[in-house]
Each structure stands twice: as structure tokens, then as C-alpha cells.
Predict the 3D structure of the following.
Amino acid sequence: MSDAQSVSRRAFVAASAAALVGLTHKGERGVRGGFVEDGGAAGHRLRDNASLGPVRERRRLPLVIVGGGMAGLSAAWWCEKHGFRDYLLLESGDEAGGNARAGRNDVSGYPWGAHYVPVPGKQAMLARVLFEDLGVLRNGVWDERTLCHSPQERLFWRGEWHEGFEPMLNDSAADRAEFRRFQDRLDGLRSSGEFTIPVSRGRPARSALDALTLAQWLDREGFRSRALRWYADYAVRDDYGTAARDASAWAGLHYFVAREPDEKGPLTWPEGNGWIVKRLLERIGTRVRTGATVRAVSRPHGGRVVVVRTEDAEFTADACIWAAPIFVAARVIDGFGASPPLTTAPWLVANLTLREWPDERGSAPAWDNTIVDSPGLGYVNATHQRLSRPGGPTVWTYYHALVQQTPLEARRALRAMSWRDASEFVLSDLERAHPTLRRVVERVDIRRYAHAMARPEPGFLSAPWRSALAASRGPIWYGHADLSGLSVFEEAQDQGVRAARRALAHIGRG
Amino acid sequence: MAAALFATVCLIAACGLVYELVAGALASYLLGDSVTQFSTVIGVYLASMGIGSWLSRYLTRGLAARFVSIELLVAVVGGWSSTLLFLAFAYTESFRVALYAIVAIIGMLVGLEVPLLMRLLRERFTFKDVVANVLTFDYLGALIASILFPLVLVPKLGLVRAALGFGIVNAVVALWSTWLFRGVLGAPRALRIACGVVLVTLVGGFVAGDKLMAAAERGLYADDVIFARTTPYQRIVLTVWKDDLRLYLNNHLQFSSRDEYRYHEALVHPGLAALPAARRVLILGGGDGLALREVLRYPGVASATLVDLDGEMTKLFTTHHDLAALNRRSFSDPRVTVVNADAFSWLDAHDDTFDFVVVDFPDPSNYAVGKLYTTAFYRLLKRHLARGGRIVVQSTSPLFARASFWCIDRTLRDAGFATSPYHLYVPSFGEWGFVLAGVDPYVAPTTLPGGLRFLSLAQLGPMFDFPLDMRAVAVEPNRLNDQVLVRYYEKEFEQINR
């Protein structure tokens, strides 16, 4: 009898106390926000071969650059740097920048994509030249304010934040041993000289490591630590939008091995690489035209000139730099041939505007904040580089590479998603680490990228179409990160500048 | 008679739930993370109730007397529970042990109550009525308590008095039970006296509840708290014991009025007395106005700008009688300008230059403060230094935090300064250190201002000499992208606290 009594009473006591705890959680205030246009409309007009309008402008000029992402901007930067200003850069979006575009609100500037550049090592010459140009590198010393401030990264693991990934990777003796073995293995690969940044500096024609996926390589090497496997998968999702089971082992290992920074970094700005974009655009001035979607590129007169047709203009140029994605080239460039076998990764990026920092436990807020075993990649704090004491409103940029499905399925899911679904996904992921997040979030603005970047799948390194495009003799030169296969700043810059060098030489201005 | 009995059930259920809620809320207040605290408190409480119910089988005789005694025990332990927990938090290291022990004891006693009561009632009513009525009133009591707790008890009474108030209810129920069960209780006289004693102490506690709460907070500090305020930036607490006034920021001692003159004379005069032409002085931090007091001793100083983050601090030290007396009303001096801003941002946004800069920030115990000890910060500061100017930096203890001290010196040198580190003994802090830095090498002063209590010219020489156990160690400089200083400091203070 007493047992039956206490069971029912126990249930009541528990329920009433739980209700009391529930009372302490204030309801969600109205979160505002919406989708930010992702430029898909212009792209799909192109895909659907919508009819062209009449030509309102005809112009003859030496050089046209197609695409205003980091590759196109770098090509233009190279031209400017060499005193050549007789060119036009065509960008289909409302603003240039590509994956490095940025936004701004009352609180802070914030990135919509690429948000940092690893500190370029001594070998990354071009990147160093750019940063000397931009005043970030002076007399061999990196500007301390631009280097990411401490603490750089933290990991939400076992219910609290930990500074760095090391505590998790060294959790048990077995984890520690595997992590050490992994690092030894990386040191070995580093000394092979096969992994360089940019890739074109030391690119091997082929590599056995490009024949298998990163997951297969980890299996083969006997890496079983759950923490290490998660870390490796996180790295390739973060850099390439590709899971370890799909990414080439060579690409995955490149992430860990290629860079030899001479300083603790990375370089970062509140608005991410949008800071670089803005400085490059200042130099390019009026030679950039936005809202100009290139609909057709042809090579009449035996290929001596290039005719670039936009919705309402036609440019005849001696040379053209194609700095837009390669899957678009196949639709637009006359005689390009079949679209290369290249898959692209869909991404979702959300910018959350917060009234104040939400509750959390563990180590202090870092620049990059990752949640272990999350479908997302965590968030970056836009106000981290402020010199003043932390506090007050801020903006978080949340990244999510959709690797759980095939790219095609994920793109469909992304398109079908309502803003409410998408923001609910973001909030419920982050809420695990910040239980009071909904009380402080004011806006969730979301950008969907159907084709954010090329996926470096096994075989990407020796894909014949890549070397064929790289070897183009003009008058169209290809300069885009797709040619390297790794969608990172250094590759886009390298490809853009290589194409610019050749195009300038071709028109006798190099 | 029946109504009185079932009202008893209702009341004891309410009391039991209130103690549980008090423990859960108190643990949430003091430790944070309300979900964990409530979950574990409820878990321990319910499990203990189960143990109590199970133990009830071993009570076979004198049930009524046992019931009254248990009620009294609940009244004592439950009534004093929140006071005990506050004191445990203030005076002991084992708050959690006290928390779960008290919750377990109350849980067991409450678990005993109801089975005993049911058995007592079984002799007067049919079994089905006993079960139905006891459970009904049990739940009803719990409902009343759960509504009263957030709406009335916590806002109107606070946690200490809420528990004491329900302790009184338990004691009254015990006293009342001696009449209810007078048929089965042989000689209730002793029980009634016990009830009276418990009631009197609980009522006394209830009346003096505020004072008990204050005593618990006082326990956190050794002396009487005369001022306590939480600002957006920190918790400011002032304590006094006899003639010793002490300032704590976030529980860290900032000064003791008995020996602060040693610290502040040593902070200001070795640098400023060596610059007879100094006219413009900048103080970063130092919202207590004590470094400012020393700066204002120099008639040549035409302007002194003090930049402190916390407006509450500078206001307190401008308006509070004893505190303004301590800094000799330096904030009211016409030469002084007070700016409440973040020092790093303020320097970045202005381009004034100064002849002497006093950098008196809290110790670099976290990354937010650590930024103010970086090469980036010192380089910025250098741009604000007039020709021949000098800065002095409070640099923690070269004895207890040796690597931290020398890291600050190294950081200043990396920022392009010539440094002259020195140290002194401050009784309330221990061995303490500063670093003087300038573009040109330091030359010691030949005169000092009058009226000093510690520093003399003869004393200066030994201050710049470091005994073997405080001498320089090899360290890295502290930079924005690699704040080694915070790690040195954390490690060194871990060792001290061990």
C-alpha cells in the first residue's frame, strides 16, 4: 500500500517540479529574418536557356573577366597591379565577392561564406604579395590585430565547452595514442613535398592517396578512435563541404598537411573575406559590372576574338578570363563540350543577430565554436576581433554543409525548405550548447547555396578535364578554384592570377 | 475530526514539497544550471521518500508519538534547511554534500510520515476511505505549495523565510497532532514542550530572517560588508574591520586601506618623479582614484585623464565619504578628467599624447583582460606617449606568478620599449611587481614629492634588484593571437591554491 501511494505521489511531485523548472524558461520571442537571395534565379534562367533580350550596348575591349568571386577579383587585382585597366569584370550577382561576400547590420559586419585565410607560409608567395598590398603583412610581420585573437577555437563536448579540440582527441589513452600516430603519419606526408598550397606549385600528376576516400584511408591505416574519425570528417566537411566517406583522401590530408604557417592564425576580419573583397573592389573601381549575367561566349573568326554576351550587352574582346564555376562554362561557352564530371556541394549559411551572449558552460567564447556530433559546423563570432571587452549584441555565422544526402537530394531539400524550417534547424542545433539562445536571438538570416563549391572526390587530382582546361592556349583562359578542385582562398587566387598572367601575355600587356 | 485529520495530510504534503523546491531553487541560485540542480534534488528527494516509506514497516509501536516526533524533526531540518545551505555555501567547501544530505534527511522523514498517518487512520476509517482521502489531500497540498512557491513564497519571503515559515507549519501540525491523537498518546506533555521549543526557535529565526541572510553573505568575506553592488562589469564589495577598508572586485582583493599607500606610491613615483617636466598624465584602470591621488601630488601635472571601464566605480569613489577621503577627493580636482570607456577602444579612437601613463588593470586572469597586456596594446600605447615619456604597468607578483611577471616585461620589450622592472612588499598582497617602460632608458629620480609614507630615495635602489627566486625566467611574449600570459597566470595561481 505504501509503495503504491509513494509511486503516485512521486510522479506528481516530479511533474509539478518539472513544471516549475519549465516556468523559468521564458517563451521564444518573435524571431525575425528571412532568406537572402542566393542568385539562383539568374543561374536558372541560364540553365533553362531563357530567351535573350536585345543588345543595347556593344563594346570592343582587350579583356573581359567573367565572374566576380575571389578568382575573378584576383585576376583583376593582378591586372591593376601591372597597370592594366582596360578590362571589364562581369558579375551576375548584385555584388561581387562570390563565396566571400559579406553582410552588415547595426551590430557588425559578418561573412556569408569564407571567413578566414590561413596565415600564408613562406611558399604561398602570391598570398603574401596580396597581404603586403593590403597592409596586413609589413616587413615580414603579420598585423597582430588581423591575426585571430585568443581563444581561436573551442569544442562543445560532453555538455560543456572546451578550449581547442585537444581535450577530446586526447580523452582516453587509446584516443591519445591514435591521435599521436595520426600526427606522425601527417608529418611523414608533409615531408613528401606532395602537398603544397597552392596545389599547382607541386601538384603530382596522380597519387595513390587520390584513389580512395578519406574514410577508406582511415580504415586502411587502422584509425578507429571515434574522436579522431569525427575530427577528420569535420575537417573535410568544413573545408570542402564533403564528408570523409566521399572526399578524396588526398584532399582530406591536404587540409592537415599543406600549410606551414609562420604565425598562429588564421587571418580574419568581422566580415570574413568580405574585407579582402572590399579592398580589391576599391582598386578595381568602375571596371566591375554587377547584375551582368553572361549568357553566351563564342569564338568567331577562327578564335581570334571572344564575344561575350550578357542579357543586354555584347563585348568583343581579345582575351577572356573565365573565373566562374566550370559547370556554368559548359552551358555558356560555345564549343566547350560536355560538362565535366564534377559534383558540387550545397551549403546553408545563417547569420544570427543576438541581443546578448546566451548562457553556456565551460571555456570562454572563441572565434570558431564547434559542436561535436552536430550536423552543422558550428558558428563563428563576428565581434571576436573587437579590441574592447566582450559583451553586448553580436552576430554569429552558422555553417552547414549538407552532406547527409547526395548533393542532388540535398539541393532539392534545400530548395523545398521554408525559412521557418531552416531557422528552426539552426536554432535547435545551437540550443544544445546554449539553452537560452531563443531568448536572445533577434534575427536569423539565411543564405542557401545550391552549388557552393566543387567536391574533391577520389580521382579529382588526375581528372583529365582539369589539366586540359589549365592548358588552354586562349583566347579563353580558365581561372577558378574548380580547376584546382579545392575551394579555398589560396587556390582561387592562384588560378585567377595564373589566368590573368597568360591573358595579359596574350594581349601583349604582361 | 475527520476534516482536521485530512487537513493535516494537506499541510504536511505542502511542507514536504516546499522544502524540496527550496533546495532545488537554492542550488540553482548558487550553482547555476537549474535543470541539473532540480533534477538531482528531485531524484534524491524521491529516492529518500522511498527509503522512508520502506523503513516505516519497522515502526510498530507508539505510532502516534512517533508521528509527532517525525513532524517535529521535519520542522527543524526543513525549517532551517535554507539557512543551513546558505551557511554551508559561505563557510564550507562542501555545499553539495550538505545539499544532498539535507534533501535526503527531509525526504526520508516525509516518506515515513504518510504511511504512519495512514496506519493511524486505518483504525478510524475503512481502508478504501483512508487511501482515497489521504491521497486526495496529499496531492491537494502539493498543488497548493507548488502554486504558492513561485508566486508568493519566493518573491515575498525569500528562500530563508519560506523554509522557516513552513517549518513553523510543521511544528504547529505536530502540536495539533498531540490533541488529535490524545486518545492514543499516553502522556503528551513532553512532546508538547518539545513542540513549543521548536516553534519558538523557528519563529525567532523567521523574524530575524534578514539578519541570517546578511550573516551568510558576510561569511564570504572575513569582515563586515559595508557596500556591495553588481555592475554590468563586475561585483564591487567593500568591507571594513576596525580601520581597515578593503575593496574586492569579483572577490579579488584590490586594496587594503592599511597598506595601499605602499602599492600606490611604488606604482606612481619611481616613474613620475623621474619626469620633472611631465604635464599630461593618463591613468588606465585605477577607478579607486588612489593612483590619481599620488599623481596629483605633482604641481607640474596640468591634466590627469583617468579611463576606467566601470562608471559605478568612479562614481562610488567620488561620492562615498570614506572612499573619497581615502583618495583625498582626487576626482574633484579641476585637473582631472574621468572617462568611462574600454581602455583599448578609447586609445584606438583618440590620438592625445601623454608624458606619463599608469596602467593599473586587474590581473590577467582571463582572455578579456589579457588583451590589455598584449604587444598590440603596448604598441598602441606607445603612439600615445610623448617624447621622453614613460609608462608603468602593474605586473602581478614576481614571486607567486613569476612567469606572468616576466611575460609582461618581455611583451613590453617586444613592443619596442626599454623596460625597468621593480618590486616591493605589500602586506595584504605579498611581494608585488611593476614594470617601467619607455623608448629611452630609465634614469632614477633625484627627488621625491613630500608627504610620502613608504617610498624614499634610498629605498629605490633595492626595489630594482631582484632576489634569486624572483629573477627573470624564459617566457614568450603575450600577443592577441597567442595569449600565453593568461595560461601562465592560470597555471601559477592553480599552484598557489593547491
User: Anything to note?
Assistant: The longest strand of chain B covers residues 385-394. The CA atoms of residues 401 and 491 of chain B lie 9 Å apart. Chain B has a mean pLDDT of 89. Chain B touches chain A through 53 residues (CB under 8 Å).
